[in-house]
Design goal:
The chain has about 425 residues and is of the alpha/beta class. Helix 4 links the parallel strand 3 and strand 4. It is globular and about 75 Å long. The structure holds pyridoxal-5'-phosphate (PLP).
Length: about 425
């Protein structure tokens, strides 16, 4: 078979559709709301009142019931949710300023930006085989905060981290922006830490443009969280910011929940179908850790070398399978390098940087036929690169190969004459 990058026909015969995550019911709900709304209905918050308007309150109740938590606080983004979580935790830790926050080197920059802006200390940690934080327990002191990211939709070792935090008098915040409906030991990701933060931004299954949801089972933390997002008006004198969602966003979110869960289920189906792809060991395809269910926000695939990975990204794109090389290394971002100590190394993350290629499943809508073709494209590209590598390796051993002769000025003159 001639692959597309060599001029053949793409294995994925028609372009994979980019998912339109906005549901009909979200559109209809928005129109219905706006046709009745008056200006003052757009935000239901009242000065001094702890809770938002009717729609925000309904969304919070539905989310708390769906995810089996005592409190849900809606806000305007997951980044704001992380900020609110730190503000809410601070009073319980106020004898230790600055606070120390433990984060993985791989994730979204907000997890470093927020503690950095608050003047907290940041300690970076390497990642495990599922790209989530890998902590040496010796680092965790009383009153520290562990901020675990359920990256690419796979749960971090949440129960272990929670036990570690509880044992040390520390706290666990889960960044569950990518982990909608993921589970560890049958418990939903986002509900295992002291605080969980979820995102409804434009890339997520629950896309309403911008939205954050914060969950906790702790009454005092819930009160602190509400104060943090609501001007500090209801937090007994503590400062807060306006991080509130609008009524319109809450209405869209309620209408989108069903669609978001369908998107996660479809991503799971696709990921599990692709996991069976035969690549003769060339690509390392992702798996779920025992006792875990991933939301498969992204499909993280590893190639054996950086060169092979870079080649694979180009070849897969030519076959019609969009993917990207690597993911965000927060410790390498200029804004955060000052938190690194000279002794720290992150061998797992360094390896992954060079080998990882990502298929952003959540944003793609392949048909069943295209899923089969995606699998065929992975097999064919893996085989082609591996064959090339084998030929190269055989070539490397042939030491006796004559070196090309140096060009003489006569060669040069004859080339000039022909051009
Ligand atoms: C892992 C992770 N954390 C945090 C965020 C921040 O979410 P938001 O855009 O809702 O602030 C994102 C968003 O892309 C994310 O993917």
């Amino acid at each position: 078979m001639v692959l597309a990058y060599r001029g053949g026909k793409p294995i994925i015969t028609t372009p994979i559709k980019i998912r339109d995550s906005l549901s009909y019911s979200a559109k209809a709900g928005t129109i219905e709301f706006l046709s009745h709304a008056r200006g003052h209905d757009l935000s239901g918050y009242l000065a001094g009142a702890e809770r938002g308007g009717g729609a925000v309150q309904r969304l919070e109740t539905i989310w708390a019931q769906t995810y089996g938590v005592s409190h849900t606080i809606a806000c305007n983004s997951a980044t704001s949710g992380i900020l609110a979580a730190f503000i809410a935790l601070e009073p319980s830790l106020s004898d230790r300023i600055p606070m120390t926050v433990h984060i993985p080197v791989m994730g979204m920059s907000a997890i470093a930006a927020v503690p950095s802006l608050l003047g907290f200390d940041i300690v970076f940690h390497d990642i495990d085989e599922h790209y989530c934080i890998k902590i040496d327990p010796a680092y965790i002191q009383p009153a520290d905060i562990i901020l675990a990211v359920n990256l690419f939709g796979h749960p971090a070792r949440l129960h272990e981290l929670r036990a570690l935090a509880d044992g040390r008098g520390a706290f666990l915040i889960e960044d569950n922006a990518q982990g909608l409906n993921a589970t560890e030991r049958c418990q939903l990701a986002g509900t295992i830490g002291h605080i969980g933060v979820w995102s409804g931004n434009v890339h997520k299954p629950l896309n309403v443009g911008e939205l954050g949801l914060i969950t906790t089972n702790d009454y005092a933390l819930a009160k602190g969280l509400r104060g943090a997002i609501n001007h500090g008006e209801a937090s007994e004198g503590r400062p807060g910011l306006n991080l509130r969602p609008t009524e319109l966003t809450a209405i869209m979110a309620m209408c989108q929940i069903r669609r978001a869960l369908d998107i996660v289920e479809r991503s799971r189906d696709i990921a599990l179908a692709l996991a069976d792809t035969y690549t003769d060991g060339f690509f390392r395809l992702p798996t779920e850790r025992d006792g875990c269910r991933s939301a498969w926000y992204c499909l993280a695939i590893e190639a054996p070398t950086k060169a092979a990975r870079d080649q694979a990204v180009i070849m897969l794109a030519a076959e019609g399978l969009p993917c990207r090389a690597g993911y965000v290394r927060i410790d390498k971002m200029k804004a955060f390098t000052s938190y690194l100590t000279s002794k720290q190394t992150f061998p797992n993350a360094d390896l992954v940087d060079d080998h990882l290629l990502l298929v952003e499943l959540c944003s793609l809508e392949p048909t069943d036929e295209q899923v089969v073709q995606m699998s065929e494209a992975l097999s064919a590209v893996g085989e082609e690169i591996e064959n090339g590598r084998r030929t190269l390796r055989r070539g490397d051993i042939r030491k006796s190969r004559p070196k090309p002769r140096k060009r003489t000025s006569a060669h040069k003159r004859s080339k000039e004459a022909t051009s």
